[in-house]
Every structure is written in C-alpha cells, then in structure tokens.
Records
---
Amino acid sequence: MDATKDSATAQAAGLLAQLDMDKLAQLAQRIDLPALLNAASQMNEGQLKQLARTLSPASKERDLPAPHGDFYGLMDMLSERQREIAARVRHFMETEVAPIMNEYWSRDEFPRQLIPKMRELNLMREIWNDDGTRTPDASVTEGIIIMEMCRVDVSTAVFFGVHAGLALASVALGGDERQRAELLPPMLDLDVIGAFGLTEPEGGSQVSQGLRTTARRDGDSWILNGEKKWIGNSTFSDITVIWARDEADQQVKGFVVRAGTPGFEVEKIQGKVALRIVENGHIRLQNCRVPESDRLQQATSFRTTADVLRLTRAGVAWQGVGCAMGAYELALSYAQTREQFGKKIGAFQLIQNHLVHMLGNVTAMQMLCLRLSQMEDAGTMRDQHAALAKVFTAARCRETVALARESFGGNGILLEYGVAKHFCDTEAIYSYEGTNEINTLVVGRAITGLSAFV
Ligand SMILES: Cc1cc2nc3c(=O)[nH]c(=O)nc-3n(C[C@H](O)[C@H](O)[C@H](O)COP(=O)(O)OP(=O)(O)OC[C@H]3O[C@@H](n4cnc5c(N)ncnc54)[C@H](O)[C@@H]3O)c2cc1C
C-alpha cells in the first residue's frame, strides 16, 4: 500500500470508529447509503480529506479564519520596510502594552516604563531625519505605525502622536538650526519627551483667533501668562511647546518651556472617560520666564502652528482606522466563540450584518487613509483632503466601535473584553485635532468656494 492510500485509510478508519451504528441505521432508512458509499469510494485524496474535515466534530473551530481587519490587503500595498515596521509595532503592542493597558486605564495613568521599550523600537527615525526633514514615505509609515498602535490601544498612539507629531514638528518647523540641532536628536531618541500646548480653557476650535495666553519681551527673555487645557504628556514631559500671543505685535509665537521652570504648573486632568491612559494636563503660566533662545525662531505667526497641525492631521485620521480595526477584530473573534441558543453568535444573520458593516467601514477607511498619506508624501495633500479623512474616519470609527460593542452584549461594557476601551476612546478622536464640525466646514468651504465659518 502506498503512502497516499495509507493516509486515506487511516482517516476513513478514524471516521468509522466515530460512527454511531444506531444513527447509521436511521440514516439508511432516509438515504441510499450504498450509493453514497459507492460515491465516496470514487473520491480522490483531496475530496476524502475534505469530507473527513467536514465530518470531524472539531472542524468548525479549526477552519474558522483568523480574525483580521485587513480584508483588501493593505499590507500588500506597502513596502517591505513598512511591513516590517508594522510587524515590529504589532509585536510591541501585543506583548508590552496589551498585558498592562487595563490596569493603567483603571489607574488613569501613563505607563512610563514603556518609554525605554519604545526607544528600542526606534520608530522616530522611520519618519524624521535628524535635521528635521521627513523621510520620503513618512506619512504612510507614520500612518501604519499609528494604525497598529490604535488597533490595541489608542492612548499609546496619542502619546506617540503628541511627542513625534505635534511637539517634534513644532521644533522641526518652528526652530532654527541651533534649536533643531539641540532638541531633535534627543527627541528622536525619546530621551527628551515633548508636549504641545495650544488649546486653552476658553479657546478650543476658535484658538487661532481667540488665543489668550500672552508673551511679553523682557530683556533677553519672555514672560508668559495664561492657561492651557488638555495638553497631552505635559504631566511628565521634559519640554512643552507653548503657543502665546506676543503683546507687542499680536502674533502667535512658540516657546519651548522646560519642565521645572518657575511659574509653569501642570495639574493632571482627572475623571476622563476616554483615553484614560493619556495624561492630559491643565497648565497655568504665571509670570513664567523663558529665555529668548527658547523662543522658536521661525515660528513668527499662527501660520507655523497651522503647518504643524496640518502635518499631524492625517495621523489622527489613521487613529480612527486602527481603533475601528481593533474593535472589529475583537467582535469577530467574540462572534466565533460566544454561543447562544446552541450556536456561535457569528452564525446569526444579524451579527453577521454587524460584522460586514464594520468590515466595510474599516476597509474604506484604510484605503482612504493610504491614499491621503500617499498624497501627503507626494506633496499634493491640501487641508481639505486631510479634513475629509478626519471627518470620515472619526464618524465611521464611532459607528464601528458601537456595532462592535453591541455584538458583545453586556460583556461589551467590561474593560476585560477590550472593546469598551475602543468605544470610549473614539469619543476623543472625534473631538480633537479639529472637531468633526470644524473639519466639515473646512471641506465644505473647499468644495463650494463658500465659507460657512462664523
Ligand atoms: C483627549 C484630548 C487630548 C487633547 N490633547 C491636546 C494637546 O495635546 N494639545 C492641545 O493643544 N490640545 C489638545 N486637545 C484639545 C482639542 O484640540 C480641543 O478639544 C478641540 O480643538 C476642540 O475644542 P473644545 O474642546 O474647546 O471644543 P469647542 O471649540 O468648545 O467646541 C464645542 C462644540 O462646538 C462646535 N463648534 C465650535 N465652533 C464651531 C463653529 N464655528 N461652527 C460649528 N460648530 C462649532 C464644536 O465642533 C464642538 O462640537 C485635546 C483634547 C482632548 C479631548
């Protein structure tokens, strides 16, 4: 007997051993059993194996696809290097962040021990060069990093985005050669952690016009006064970029305020129901003296602030992609294991409808953001392109995480099942870096030529 026959015989013997003879007799009364056996005897090796798999009680579990939210092969559209970076980030998120994130969520605290581990990942230099220029494919690469982070935990991506995006870009775009040479290498190595202080208690969406924090020149230094709200990382950052209005010319300028500077106080914002792992600070500046050498020399008007925000907006759109992708994968996995009425809930049509709706959203978001980032890397992206992506992904993410949470029933509101965190975090994505209303107005103005801003 050859090896092929051996294998088929062993499988057939295994199947026969499992047969219940009473049930077989019942079956023989309803179907032509000899004809069926005759048909089976004509089967080739592949068909026999398939039959064995189908009849095996464990087959349903074994044949289920691994949950994954990359239905159209986003990864296949990336370079080898970008795929390697994505794998590196995924491994870090699953082995270092996932095991501790619920504990830190409950404690309302950022796990600072992750910083040296993130340093080993060396992600900054995949996006930035030491001189403050961007790598040729920075936007796509950064987007993939953010997506992979948010798939597990949005807060980790916000820590990364505030430091590697907002703070680093402020120095890169607003600093002169000396400032870039001093600050960028340690920021790229995560030896110096940055924060970005623009929003104020009374100035959110209207901050470009209503910024109240003041800067007054006094000899070789500046005196800053005012308040900043929501400033991510600022409770432990080494530097915080503070945007303040120069009393003399009324222009908005950027200042690097170092931790411990007298007159610079940070209070951690408590009681958030989203992004609880991010530490957001309420900053009070009272006669805070900053040397002229720490005024960002190229940031002489709000135009630089807007340039920084433009550079980071695509990244926020990618946050929505990752958050929705993570929620979808959790829901798919749950649907394949949770049983009700004697069936996997994934076998119910209504649950499949949820899953397909989610997957459609995730896939559309991925393709939209990939194209947006390709445009950014090519230098053709405009404000309205990034604004549309932010509007679309934040809204689709909100819809997706709600369907995912719903698919978990009551377990969907328990932290341990994961989806609740995505559900809550989406609310922050929806509102920062330009609320959905403001980004909608940006797109509306671009497509109609008519401004609806008040
Ligand atoms: C978790 C988190 C992290 C953050 N991190 C930072 C950070 O690190 N640094 C920083 O500087 N800021 C940060 N922010 C601030 C964030 O950018 C602001 O929350 C955002 O710009 C919105 O401002 P606001 O919250 O004051 O809302 P408001 O501007 O008060 O808006 C309230 C509502 O009114 C709507 N609205 C306002 N104006 C208009 C209009 N003209 N037309 C139609 N609707 C309008 C808004 O869309 C919104 O729905 C963060 C915020 C959050 C929640």
Note: Residues 52 and 413 are 40 Å apart (CA to CA).
---
Amino acid sequence: MERPGSPTKIYFMLYIPCPHCGLRNETEFHYGAEAGIAYPDPYVLTDSEWAKYLHIRANPRGWFAERWVHFAGCGRWFNLWRNTITHEIGPAYLPFTTQPKVPGDTIAGQEDPRA
Ligand SMILES: [Zn+2]
C-alpha cells in the first residue's frame, strides 16, 4: 500500500567520468554495448558464428566493461566499468589501452555465453 504523496518511482542519475571532460551527467552519454569485443572477419565465420558475434553478449550480473560515447560533450568513445546491479561506476579508460582491474567481485556462477 502506498502512502498518499509518496513517490511511486525513484530515479537515480548516473554521473559518468569521461576520460576527456571529467564527471558529467548521464544524459550526455549513449551506451554502446560490451567493451573489448573485436570485430571479426565476417568472411571466415559461419552464419552461426556471425549471429553469435552480432547478438550474444556476456550480460553478467555485477561489474561489466561497457562502451560509452560522450555525444553531448567531446564526442569520443571510451570504456567504463559499471556494476549492472547497483549502477556503481568504476574507472573509465580509453579503447585499446590496458583495461583497469575489475573494481569489485562479480557474482559467482556467471558463465560467458560466448564460450
Ligand atoms: Zn567527453
């Protein structure tokens, strides 16, 4: 039962650390899917392997490396650790650089569906 005047939904705003511009409001960014997925040569893959590349991602519970673009700022792509359960933001880093260590533990028992 809800009390009169109580909010029915609570929204949280993420503050995302762009490596070029610093901490900014999430409305300035677009999500770009899982980080670190290399583009394969489509001519050497089977249809099944190509479909797997296009549609299957790890989607874990817990810390996850993601691609983001700061479309309302510098317009650059970068990678970011984000906890998919708590939305806690971890370190941001540039593509093709050394990935920082996972900020926390992932939930045990998660399997990589691409394996
Ligand atoms: Zn930026």
Note: The helical segments are 47-55.
